[in-house]
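ZP: hey, is the siroheme complex queued? I don't see it on the tracker
AM: it wasn't, my bad. submitting now with these inputs:
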Amino acid sequence: MLPEQVKVPVPDDRINAAERLAEALDRDQVLWLSGYLAGLASRDADRQKATAPAAAFPATILFGTQTGNSRRIAESLLARLDRMPGARSISMADYRFADLTREKQLIVVVSTHGEGDPPDAAEPFFRRLLSTRAPELGALRYAVLALGDSSYEHYCKAGQDLDRRLEQLGAERIRPLVECDIDFQDAAGEWMEALVSALDFESEETNVVAITPRRAENRTAPERPVSARVLETQSVTGRGTKSPTFHLELELADDTLAYQPGDALGVWPENPPQIIAGVLDAAGLAPDDPVVIDGESKALEAALARDRELTQLTLGDLKRYAESTGQPALEEFLAGLTPGERAEVLRTWQWEDVLRRFPSTTDAQRLVDGMAPLRPRLYSIASSPEAAPGEVHLTIARVAYELAGQNRHGAASNHLESLPPGETVRVYLEPNPAFRLPADGGPLIMIGAGTGIAPYRAFVEHWIALGLKPESWLIFGHRHFRTDFLYQAEWLNHLKAGRLTRMDAAFSRDAGGPRYVQDVVNAQASELARWVERGAHVYVCGSIAMGKGVEEALAQALGGLDALKDAGRLHRDVY
Amino acid sequence: MSTDVERIKAASRGLRGTLSESLAAPLTGAIAPDDTQLSKFHGIYQQDDRDLRLERQHQKLEPAWQFMIRARVPAGVCTADQWLALSQLAREHADGSLRLTTRQAFQLHGVLKRDLKPTIQAINKSLLDTIAACGDVNRNVMASPNPWRSDVHAQVTEAARAISDHLTPATRAYHEIWLDGDKLVGEAEAEPIYGATYLPRKFKIALAVPPENDVDVFAQDLGFIAIVRDGALLGYNVTAGGGMGATHGDPTTYPRLADVLGFCAPDEVVGIAEAVVTIQRDHGNRDERKRARLKYTIDDRGLDWFLGELAERRGRPLKPAAEFVFQRHTDRIGWTRGEDGRWHRSVFVQNGRIAGKQLAALDRIAESHRGPLLLTPNQNLIIASVAEKDRTGINRLLEQGEPDGSPLRQAAMACVAMPTCGLAMAEAERYLPDLIGKVSELFAEVGQADTDTVIRMTGCPNGCARPYLAEIGLVGKAPGKYNLRLGGDGKGQRLNRAWRDNLDEGQILEALGGLIRRWAAERDDDERFGDWTHRHVDFAAP
Ligand code: SRM
Ligand SMILES: Cc1cc2nc3c(=O)[nH]c(=O)nc-3n(C[C@H](O)[C@H](O)[C@H](O)COP(=O)(O)OP(=O)(O)OC[C@H]3O[C@@H](n4cnc5c(N)ncnc54)[C@H](O)[C@@H]3O)c2cc1C
Ligand SMILES: Cc1cc2nc3c(=O)[nH]c(=O)nc-3n(C[C@H](O)[C@H](O)[C@H](O)COP(=O)(O)O)c2cc1C
Ligand code: SF4
């Protein structure tokens, strides 16, 4: 029963219903339910705040150039569209692919290079448009001008490919494709004349129905995952990196998982084959030995893949294994360790290491019974539902290390990296209400190390999609500038376009310049204090160790963190 | 309408622009776009590793920005200490290789932005510099190596150095930005010869000592051909209006052989150089960079107009040109003996790229030999002024320090192209050695395995390896595709002509195979392949 003196904003009958529900749930489920209800509460707040769908673009001239000709044509065409406010000319390298569905009239000027290929800078746009992921473009009207050189085998091929693809996606031509040889001035001039007269200039708010995603609920949970299809796995660290990290884009089949920037995605991994093989070999057991898991019989190999934790060890696992296999040597070994040594063993050993160093004639069933159930792993979401509707992006560091000459891998990070596009993975949402964009749209300081930068990508993509421009300062740290500057090209574009106010970076393994994000905080103490005085929220994301170091530096810079914490303006997402 | 580059130069306050700010920007390995034009005047090109360009785009990383630094080496004369300094920089701040260029200069590739300043400071400490190695100014002045070979060669080298010093820009920007010189206050310094916007385009000068035309004097904006009688330097024939650069499919751009203008005395070369540079400064085309070189100025206004301008600026016309004979424009690899009886070893460096074992071996030679080293116009190296007793030691070191090569391979030249040249359309340096192997089989099949036919390949029509003078010229058009040109004379006095365009390797070998067989069968006595094709190939046929 609730203590009497608490002023209760909920009528008694609702309280009784809540208590009856709570009694039917165990402690963990009640805790989870509270998170779910909190999510529902914040969602309602979010629903009222949802802004109108972003207006469509009246006309966009998109150019793909290598030696500047297409760019110059695009610019002269734009100059002729001065009677159409909102007309814009943009390079394919800088174009936000998600805008395609909000275009009304798309005019493309593109050259062909290499051997019938698009210009280098246009390649990503081409790759995405020609892929199965390109959206349906029924509401679009378009015209393509192709630049080329008839002395080449594939004359104007890039322009032809793009013109044909837009038609395939349901768009309607304003003018037929025009191909220009190297003396393109006249042909391009005629094409512009014909096009300007064919364009629709009425500039008032177009009544194109902007496709707004239906506001969905989150009905997922660790025990109620949904399946998400892998769209793309892309390494985002340069050749030669010592911290391989990849960007994973997942497609959510239906709307049962609505997330907000700051949330994390729970992922049920499968133990990779090489880890299972190592355990089987160490235990001297066969992959198809029968076992029973929660009343269901299956092959040992299948159980080790989806039902048992092979890579994370707890003290309980070791003690249970020592008892069930009568292994005094293991217990003596553990007892002989200092707390520090024991923590290190638990941090770095995997089941294969235990079975090899303390072999036993255990059978399949006893082995799986002694192992903990497989646990999901969490990944901070690196995308915004507004910017990438129906998709979730993650930034994952592949865990791989050496232990006594043996290669050891993390389960989830390696499993996820191995999934080819089209494959599915079981996921659920782990809301993180404490790590939200400032409700008042006020200034924010985002400090992230390594994959800790993921939620900030979600933040920036979100405010861009909503047309907001908060005062924002990103402080990023990793090992090497050359290979580990995660999403560098995106940050540089945001800074150039004024969508990100300021950025500092620290690279621990490079000579010169700050080495850790803490060093940036110390060096910029007074400027940080000024931002905080103006009401800035401070976010810290990344490893636990980094979090501690950053908070100490922040405390020094701001003369203590209590004021910030009390005002709910210090946000942590450390793992 | 002056070009973008003209605007940048005019606004640059003596080539400073915002270079210092760009160098300090930590989030990108690049410098500001406008600064990339100005950095050229300081001998620095911003580039990116094109092997990684697409891969890094997918990885959401900026291009792998890196810089090429070109050090000026007038007449290619380099001391052992300078060599060792540059070799150390190649390993410490560059990609581990030293690159000898077709203008007797050094290039370092793959230098990161944060390492630019220490690298340039070290180059300056070795008394070499990078100022004006690039940009719209006079470039490295070439002279047929080597001054230790004969008294005439020594005088010609001295003349080259004098011209180079005289035409070095006066701006203090270089010292301010790279050598922490004191910051400019107020107006930028005046440039007595170049003026505020320097030249409309690069300017190239070379001095040749017959019978060698290794500097390819007819490919230069301004050239001096030493006139020697009985071992004495009488003076020079002056040449002007040479150049290689062209643009595919643009007939208004073309390679051009320099005209021989007349004769001058040895002490008149610096005056003539200044006069010709000021003509180009005042009358070169500043509206269209593709038409800005002196060769176009002369074709647009006529040779007589040019000779009149030169006579007017010098106060007197040139005397009539004297007789001269060139025999070759490639290097003779091996030992030769100078007038003073000391020995000189011309070392083969394939396409100028020195790395790994060859770099280590040449370092050891520089340490032991202590004598001068000469960079040749054909991307090779000469170990100069070696005493008789030291030859065997050098030969032993060269076993590690020199790739073996047939006369065909030694005579061949390729430009840098991929992966560092931003203008490359096809491979050159990395591909020519492989193609040479296949072409030498064609020659071997007709008993001509030891031919020294001059083959030159470039990754684009800009012509950095002077391909338009080769007996077999291969000019890059698209990845794996080259335009095949034929008919050079083996001594750089005749342009080759376009024959077949857009050929892949198979088509190149098939076309050359047929010609080589006909040449071997039909040529009279030892007529060169270039001369034979010049006479016998129907260049008009489709
Ligand atoms: C290194 C070198 C080729 C080599 O393999 O040795 C070279 C390399 C480049 N040349 Fe060259 N040129 C080199 C000798 C030449 C020559 C031969 C000569 O000078 O005798 C020519 C033809 C002669 C002439 O100038 O007409 C030459 C004509 C060009 C041109 C075309 C200029 C024109 O008038 O059209 C360009 C492009 C430009 O300047 O815009 C160019 C541009 C370039 C650049 C800097 C590309 C660029 O502008 O971004 C190349 C750097 C590639 C790299 O990654 O290193 N380079 N370039 C030679 C360095 C010379 C030096 O030490 O100063
Ligand atoms: C809220 C939250 C958000 C997160 N966000 C992200 C994110 O955005 N991106 C991301 O990559 N991860 C994130 N993580 C971490 C992620 O959940 C996993 O822990 C991580 O991916 C490793 O999982 P795994 O299954 O690959 O490795 P596991 O199979 O779980 O780990 C293998 C074992 O190896 C040990 N180990 C790991 N590295 C080393 C090493 N170098 N030396 C020795 N032993 C080592 C580990 O201690 C572990 O015992 C987040 C975690 C939380 C809680
Ligand atoms: C290296 C190179 C490769 C080219 N390949 C092709 C080709 O395969 N097909 C074609 O039609 N044009 C080709 N071109 C010609 C260009 O498309 C043409 O020059 C065009 O005007 C360039 O426009 P841009 O400056 O916008 O890139 C090529 C040009 C270059 C420099
Ligand atoms: S010829 Fe063309 S490809 Fe070769 S180095 Fe010169 S500019 Fe680059």
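AM: back. Chain B has a mean pLDDT of 95.
ZP: great, adding it to the tracker
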